[in-house]
Design a protein that fits this description.
Elements lengths: L8 H8 L5 E3 L3 E3 L8 H12 L1 H6 L1
């Protein structure tokens, strides 16, 4: 799952979920076809991405 690399989203995800996901630099969360997706954690990351600009202004 790719994110805009000029944000601090992956850094935030990595701090909150250091061992839950595999990351690719400051750009993406990596999954393989056989991965069991941790849905609650992924939903949290997606929520943070969708509200990034609103939170950034606070």
């Amino acid at each position: 799952m790719h994110f805009i690399c000029t944000t601090n989203l992956i850094e935030t995800f990595r701090a909150k979920y250091p061992t839950t996901f595999d990351y690719d630099g400051n750009r993406s969360i990596l999954f393989t076809i056989d991965d069991e997706i941790p849905a609650p954690e992924l939903c949290d990351c997606i929520s943070m991405a969708l509200t990034y600009h609103r939170r950034k202004k606070e």
